[in-house]
Design goal:
Blueprint lengths: L6 H16 L4 E5 H15 L4 E3 L1 H5 L3 H10 L4 E4 L2 H9 L6 E3 L8 H6 L3 E4 L2 H14 L3 E8 L7 E2 L3 H10 L3 E7 L12 H18 L6 E5 L1 H6 L7 E2 L24 E6 L2 E5 L17 E6 L16 E4 L2 E6 L7 E6 L8 E8 L2 E3 L1 H7 L4 H7 L6 E4 L6
Parallel strand pairs: 1-19, 2-3, 3-4, 4-5, 5-6, 6-7, 6-8, 8-9, 9-10
Antiparallel strand pairs: 1-11, 11-17, 12-13, 13-16, 14-15, 14-17, 15-16, 17-18
The structure holds pyridoxal-5'-phosphate (PLP).
Pyridoxal-5'-phosphate binds next to loops.
Amino acid sequence: MRSPLPPDLETPAAETMSRALEDRPTRIRVDLDALSHNLDRIRRHVGVPVMGIVKANGYGHGLLRTALHLQAQGIEQLGVAFVEEGVALRRAGITVPILVLGGIFGDQVTQFLAHDLEITVSSVDKLGQVEATAAAMGRPATVHLKIDTGMERIGVHSYSAGPFIEAAVASRWCRIKGVYSHLACADDPDSPMTTLQLERFLDACRHFERLGAPMPIRHIANSGGVLHFRDTWLDMVRPGILMYGVRPDVTALATVDVRPAMSLLSKVIYFKVVKAGNPVSYGATWAPEYDTRVVTIPIGYGDGYPRALSSRGEVLVRGRRFPIVGRVCMDQLMVDIGGYSAWNEDEAVLVGTQGAERISMEALAARAGMIPYELLVGLTDRIPRTYVGGRSRS
Ligand SMILES: *Cc1c(COP(=O)(O)O)cnc(C)c1O
């Protein structure tokens, strides 16, 4: 939508808004040292190069800062979902190889080539499209061939991979850097699906040998694969959520020692006594049995804090764990601190550690009936991200 304001009026307004947001008591704190630690632990665990997945705003941690930090740690490769994310990374000065995992829409191939982004080729048709555009631009395309081994999302079925790989090998303008697939059930260490997918994938890769073509980089392991299935590590791994220190599921095994990079923090902004029987928040769904102390925290579902946590979530204040009471509002929520005291400006931890208490992303997501991925990427831009650790502080 076009703004009705001329640009000279629009820009200062936007700046004032973002400065105002910086002052919000609610913030996401990203510990860049945790990110380095996790990358290091994953590397040692798998012993092969890592493609760090930074799609969806770096799983909520901030696309550019996360990618710049990973690049500074010498990460071999980055992965994003869409070409737009790849272009944003290039504009921010990211020089490491970037694979776009999603499909190609319309005539985006020119954008891939112009910004030196690696392309996922997921059908013989798309291969032809990439080949034609690369030839017209006189620029070779770097591609990864996508094989579908059981996800049924994008990619050529492993049982039809022969002609696909043959066409790719024969192409003049496509340089085949990788061949890959995606695991559907790797979060579950007991699922037989992963072994089946791996077998299908390795069968498909044999076509390179059959054709006498060099074997490209084979990659299939997401975070679940890294955690649970050694055989899937192959030539490169593609962890997303695990790199941020969050396990894909509460039931995932902690085979790699990672630390959560994100904390979700706010402050107490209001304190009151609620008298017995007086309901709190929209819908009057909760009321105390006795007079109690209730504080207000300025975060809500408008920030991506799930409304499903109404009377279910918990918040840490002064090193103690207290329940959210009544409905989570768009911008605020209420917490029952019982007989304890709290002061305006006291730190409130929604995800993270305070004293001896901790609220994990995995546990909070489970409580909300969500997966940790959903919770992470749902945290909106209205929450300012601050970064600690790394080389500089800001
Ligand atoms: C998102 C994604 C990943 C990373 O998944 P995690 O479960 O976060 O590790 C890896 N590969 C592909 C193709 C993806 O889309």
